[in-house]
Amino acid sequence: MNKIVHLGLFLAIVSAIAGGALAFANQMTAPVIAENNERQEKESLVAMYPDASENDFKVVNKTFNSKTVQKVYEYKNVYIFNMSVSGYKEGTVFLVSIDKDTKKIDEYNAISNGDTKGLGSQVTEAPFKKSLEGKDATGELDTISGATVSSGPVVNGIHEAAKLVDKLK
After folding, report:
1. Rounded Cα distance, 33 and 31, in Å
2. Which of 45, 59, 82, 128 suits a disulfide with 71, CB 3.0-4.6 Å?
3. Radius of gyration (Cα) for the chain, nearest Å?
4. What does the pLDDT look like over 32-47, one tens digit per residue?
5. Could you tell me the pTM of the whole model?
């Protein structure tokens, strides 16, 4: 019985030390990860609109009751939504710009995708991007055959963003 108490106490101490080390590592890396994500996002914005500078994109400071809309930018006549949607595995983070007046998709740019390579990752490729751009964001948008678990949430996210355009005006 005494041996069980000692082993239990030893495991508790080891667990506390390991938990503290993980918390410390998280505290040290969280700002770096956030900075890298923001830099990647700004690079994606400039990639969407090469004539713009990082300072041309104004953050819209409104809160939304949305699990997918991470941030909204305003640039000229479009709103650019930073979206994070679930998929087959890790889901997709993407930017979609929607014209304020026509609600047409101006640009689409996938930032990251953690789904199956070859199928789910097609949401990051040019054919899917071209199938979206210029289309009505409130209308029917094509999904990728065989990868609807990855492309369906992207389309649903775009529809959600289109509904928010009127609230931003």
Report:
1. 5
2. 82
3. 21
4. 988 888 888 888 899 9
5. 0.79
